[in-house]
Amino acid sequence: MSPKKLHQSQMPVAKAALAPNIPEELTVDILLRLPPKSIGKFRCVLKSWRSLLSDPLFITAHLTLHLHYPQKLIFFSSSPVPPSSRSIYTLTFTTADNPGSEAVLQKLTLSENILENTSSKYASIVGSCNGLVLVLGFRMEIGFRDTMYLINPTTMEFVKLPASPLVREAVRIGGALGYDSSNDDYKIVTVSCDEPTSNETSVDVFSLRSGSWKRINSLPYHLDFRSSVFLNGAIHWLARSDSGDHSVIAFDLTCEKFNPVPIPRGEFDPLKLADLGGCLAMVVKQTFHQMDIWMMQEYGIGESWTKFSVPTPNYFYFNDIVCLLGDDNVVLNVKDQKLVVHNLTENTRRDMVVAGIGGHLRYLIGFSESLVSPIYYCQNWRAT
Q1: The pTM is what?
Q2: Which of 114-123, 177-186, 200-209, 334-343 has the lowest mean pLDDT?
Q3: How many Cβ atoms from other residues are within 10 Å of residue 181's Cβ?
Q4: Euclidean distance between the first and the last CA atom of the chain, given in angstroms as a whole number
Q5: Across the beta sheet with 72-78, what order do the strands follow?
Q6: Residue 81: pLDDT band by 50, 70, 90 thresholds?
Q7: If you count Cβ atoms within 10 Å of the first and of the last residue's Cβ in the chain, which end, N or C, has fewer?
Q8: Is residue 111 classed as helix, strand or coil in its secondary structure?
């Protein structure tokens, strides 16, 4: 999307001259096209540049332009040999200009600050949205009470979020992250179940702007805590009723209500939801030979579900679908040990060459680089 297609009210305006010999509109246009890390460097040029490049209006316009650029991946990597350790890494896909490696790793130094305050054995990455990533952990010494961190892996900003007072200790809990565009607010949604055999699920919502929790009415079915996807303003989960029927439900973050999502016809046992190139996808079967995946090509239209299969020889139940590369390549995480690329058109597969990879790859999810600041959204309640 070109900056000229943004509504005039969405265009950032400099509060002082940025470059005397260049029209201001052109300067802003150029800056909007720069990658987030370059913006961070240019904030140090002049006070006027820092003011513009830190303005929420500029950050929103920049996000609009860069949201659909190639994603990065973020994950935990744990050492397979003693002394065991766990760190957070990002993975960046490279271009044809780097023939020696298809992707490179970078360790996040902020991960040490986060993991030292959570039991690394129980920490997981559970969601991403607009460049922000949600890390959910459990602390043994306080009865498995959850701790949450919202981080921006690009700017290295992070905030610790208060645990929900509505969830009692030592219950099964999962989390998800999404953006409420109507209120310009990021929301964390946790789902919990008090009894191991109960299908009734409690849902709690945390507003990053207000810093408060509230409970949504309990649901009469079980949600799969491990599988959530944020798309089209809603968080999606696999659900199962008391009768054993499977479905997909979407929690709209603006009206905070659940809505059913049409699923493919026929009987099957869905295993996981995923976001593949901005489309809702569902893994419905894994065998010794293949993984069957359905994709909703047009959101909300049941007839738009299309099926494709990925051969999985010798990897029974140890594949995890990660993302799409282009239109034809599906990236799989095999046994948490390596990444495999399967080409749907040519029906070929190969191991991805990743510089610096080692240890186990856990909780792999995609995120887009952005300038969105988690500190900005919670500044009101954090200051009190």
Answers
A1: 0.86
A2: 114-123
A3: 11
A4: 39
A5: 354-355, 103-107, 86-93, 72-78, 360-367
A6: very low
A7: C
A8: helix
